[in-house]
Amino acid sequence: MERVLVTGAGGFIGHHLVSYLKERGYWVRGVDIKRPEFVETSADEFELLDLRRWDNCLQATRGVEQVYALAADMGGMGFISSHHAEILHNNALINLHTLEAARINGVSRYFYTSSACVYPLYLQDRTDVVPLKEEDAYPAQPQDAYGWEKLFTERLCMHYRESYGIETRIVRFHNIFGPYGTWEGGREKAPAALCRKVAVAKLSGNPVVEIWGDGEQTRSFCYIDDCLTGIYRLMCSDYAEPLNLGQDRMVTINELADIIAQIAGTRIVKKHVPGPQGVRGRNSDNTRLRQVLGWEPEISLEEGLARTYAWIEDQVRAKYGF
Fold it and tell me: Where in the sequence numbering do the catalytic residues fall?
């Protein structure tokens, strides 16, 4: 069995990825500062390690052929727009140490998870934004410290490949969502937050759902199962440049709330309140994804949200006693 490491294995995508790789016959070590919150890990080994520390990165990367680097200090727009120094400091340490430790320990292939936040603000200042192509990242003007660190680490991976021969793969996620992710507490992203708000509205009988800003900001959203397929296909490919991974169907946040309410079978009243909104519009151009992988995400927004909402409604019922 090929031995692989998944960092961030206690988080949403990392936990799902561990299970995905185990199903395909890999021996998997998971590493994080916390265990998965909602279900037990299927990793062969799970180590609680703070990857901001160099010695922990050396320990984590020992004896594996491949690394999937998902560890990051992150959250939804409310978090990443208000913790710039913390995010830049923590994520820079994690990625500098993990990549160098992988090189020293002889890792042959390294997968880095970047983000659509690397794209320039000047291309995302309208709701009907032109879909973002990979080359649009330069001239650089990423969103927030989170985006700057992601772009920096993309460059680091590319230079490690050129200088040391380690095969690096780089993906730019566009709003991944699904069950077993954070759904409350300030770090949750828009789909999970809205599923929670709609579930509370339905179960409490109070139809008011708060939405930050006017709700006309636009995004595309990709379900976790498609994300895992894309990750694995890219890791197994010979393509070394950054690649978008997301749906290319753009909806407003207002539309997203309406879709979730329809799935829940309830009526909501949207209340627009002040709050961080991020860029005005963002969508993925999947032209290169189709060319490189011969594939693109297949699960519809409605299907993915139906699966996610059902899980979050169960969480809300259990926690709040509805």
Answer: 146
